[in-house]
Specification:
about 625 residues, binds arginine, disordered N terminus, four-stranded antiparallel β-sheet
């Protein structure tokens, strides 16, 4: 995705609750035209009319609908007012708006075909990659280009070094990538942050494991894999001790003796050395971290994901955490409990959050305290306007504890939590490769790619025409995984199904790619230049209901992007794209581009229409993080 969006000179308009950009958004242009006519009739408040004009969910109900009570006109029954407006509304051949239709207390508005054909295709062909996006939204004041960009931190992916890259990390990566793109295209300054799990007692345990099982050659070849193997082995060694420790805890016995010997004692002591800044202990850990990041980056690149900040739990400074603890202690929030520091949320109006340890008995920090420190450091570094935590729903309590602690710190810190948001998501059931369980992202990507390759081979003739089948299969596989993930609302759980996601039928990634490739193929079959398309006689499209349906769908793309900025749901965009592709596939038989009987002028106008449709599909796919294929 192009990081810099050329700012489009645009004049915005403000109503009470949002701004409108008629130059960028065809529905806004339509809203303004309707609002003007409404204010002529009955002296309706223009700004109320503007914000009352909603996009319909179903195009049969119009392009925009106005629920009359939104106009807040006193002393007249809404249904009466609807009738009056419809009766007085002026529309004619060349107008933007067709004669509206009253439906109870609502009024339905439809674009005139001429409005759509004369403005939309040229707009899209001119704006190209910028169509749909409004770089003003990320300004402090969307109507004032000098007001400065807002900064958003999107924290996502955040796997744990030496541990499995599980479905939760995959979902976070996909959703976080989309959100970063979305904010970037809306004109925000975006910090793409990976908050690695690279600290904690388990890295003490990993160091013990390295002593027993570490192998330099194996590490150099496959750092992530080798560290994982070591971690699995040492965890198994550690298991009996952990069982004993848990049992003693259950019996209510003092476990401090158990904690200080054996592997657990060793791991804790090692981690303590790391926290105390012992250079020798840190050196080993740093090697693990650096090489792991290098390998992660290769995998992320395959996924079309990049980060601007590789942060991690290890980057939280002791002094930041100490200062936070001081404040919390002064305010009576932090308490001592057998040498550990705890927060009892029940005493602070948050019963559900229970009691949490924030510093362990031997003085080391824990996950929660590190998150408190990380939040404060992010504010100091970036002065962010928004911070999104793209983290699975299992960690909701954890994040709510974090937000609550910041609230309880008072003053500047409480405002911090108001700018933070947990972007939650549900589980993936049964994510595994065909050979067995998944350890790393690479395993899944490779497996789905191979599977996709098999699917492609089933169609021999087509397969023989694909130039680079391996690469194509990989990209199709990625699309399959991502589209499956983004199909439902984030919070829904879903079943990982290779068969379903790789199918070319139904609303899948391969289907979306096919739709794009089919559009691209049109332009390989005809010899029509961009200039010819820009100069086409668009009125030739006005008679075709299929062309009008497509145009109406294409007109709402900018509004959908705006909507996604509110829902923060990839499915908002994805479902829109599927609707558009359905519109497209039913149009091909009616709108031939290659040598139509109607002649060349019609061919050019249709080519322009399909070129615009391809652009919209392309822009939506790129926004989702997909790489549109021109051939497959
Ligand atoms: N590394 C964590 C895990 O895998 C996720 C990190 C979530 N972000 C945070 N700020 N706690 O469970």
């Amino acid at each position: 995705m192009a990081p810099q969006v050329p700012a489009i000179p645009s004049q915005g308009l403000q109503s009470a609750d949002r701004s409108f950009f008629p130059d960028l958004n065809p529905l806004d242009r339509f809203r303004v035209a309707i609002a003007e006519e409404l204010s002529r009739i009955s002296h309706i408040d223009k700004s109320l009319a503007l914000s009352g004009l909603d996009r319909t969910t179903n195009l049969d109900n119009g392009d925009l609908v106005l629920v009359v009570p939104r106009l807040r006109m006193k002393g007249v029954a809404p249904a009466e007012l609807a009738k009056k407006i419809v009766a007085e509304f002026e529309s004619h051949e060349g107008a933007k708006v067709k004669a509206p239709i009253a439906d109870g207390i609502s009024i339905k508005f439809f674009f005139t075909p001429t409005e759509l054909t004369s403005t939309l295709v040229p707009l899209i062909l001119q704006q190209q990659e910028a169509y749909g996006f409004n770089p003003n939204l990320g300004l402090r004041d969307p109507l004032n280009p000098d007001s400065g960009q807002k900064t958003v931190i999107v924290e996502f992916s955040s796997p744990n070094i030496a541990k499995k890259f599980h479905a939760g990390h995959l979902r976070s990566t996909i959703i976080g990538g989309f959100l970063s793109n979305l904010y970037e295209r809306s004109g925000y300054k975006v910090v793409r942050m990976n908050y690695l799990g690279d600290w904690g007692r388990q890295y003490g345990l990993l160091a013990c494991g390295w002593k027993r099982y570490g192998d330099e050659d194996a590490f150099a070849k496959d750092p992530i894999g080798h560290l994982f193997d070591i971690y699995v082995k040492i965890s198994a060694d550690f298991q009996p001790e952990e069982d004993e420790f848990k049992a003693a805890g259950k019996r209510g016995e003092d476990t401090s003796e158990l904690e200080s010997r054996g592997l657990l004692g060793e791991a804790k002591a090692y981690f303590k050395r790391m926290e105390d800044g012992d250079e020798e202990a840190l050196q080993l850990w740093r090697r693990f971290r650096d090489l792991s990041i290098e390998r992660y980056n290769e995998t992320y690149a395959r996924l079309n994901i990049r980060f601007t900040d590789y942060s991690g739990e290890s980057q939280v400074k002791q002094e930041t955490m100490k200062k936070a603890e001081e404040i919390l202690r002064e305010r009576g929030v932090l308490e001592s409990d057998e040498g550990a520091s705890i927060v009892d949320f029940k005493k602070h109006g948050a019963k559900k959050l229970g009691v949490a340890v924030v510093r362990n008995r031997n003085g080391t920090s824990n996950y929660l305290l590190r998150d408190v420190g990380a939040a404060i450091q992010r504010e100091d570094t970036y002065h962010f306007d928004e911070l999104l935590y793209v983290v699975m729903s299992e960690q909701e309590t954890h994040l709510n504890r974090l937000f609550k602690i910041l609230d309880l710190m008072g003053e500047g810190y409480a405002t911090l939590s108001k700018r933070m948001k947990h972007i939650t998501f549900g589980k993936v059931m049964g994510m595994s490769t065909r050979k067995g369980n998944v350890k790393f992202l690479d395993d899944i990507l490779a497996d789905v790619g191979d599977f996709m390759h098999d699917v492609m081979r089933r169609n021999e003739t087509k397969y023989s025409q694909v130039e680079d089948p391996t690469r194509t299969a990989e990209l199709l596989g990625l699309s399959a995984i991502m589209v499956q993930d983004m199909s439902g609302k984030r919070i829904n759980n879903y079943e990982f199904s290779l068969e379903r996601m790789t199918s070319f039928e139904g609303d899948t990634g391969p289907y979306l790619q096919y739709a794009h490739a089919r559009l691209s193929s049109i332009f390989r079959k005809v010899d029509i230049t961009r200039d010819e398309m820009l100069g086409a006689d668009f009125s030739l499209l006005a008679q075709s209901p299929h062309a009008i349906s497509m145009l109406r769908a294409m007109a709402r793309f900018p509004d959908m992007v705006h909507q996604a900025q509110k829902t923060l749901e990839p499915t908002t965009i994805l479902m829109y794209l599927f609707k558009l592709t359905h519109e497209l596939s039913s149009s091909y038989d009616h709108l031939r581009v290659v040598n139509p009987p109607e002649g060349r002028a019609v061919s050019i106008a249709r080519a322009a229409l399909y070129q615009a449709a391809r652009q919209v599909l392309h822009n939506g796919m790129v926004l989702l993080g997909l790489r549109p294929l021109d051939r497959m």
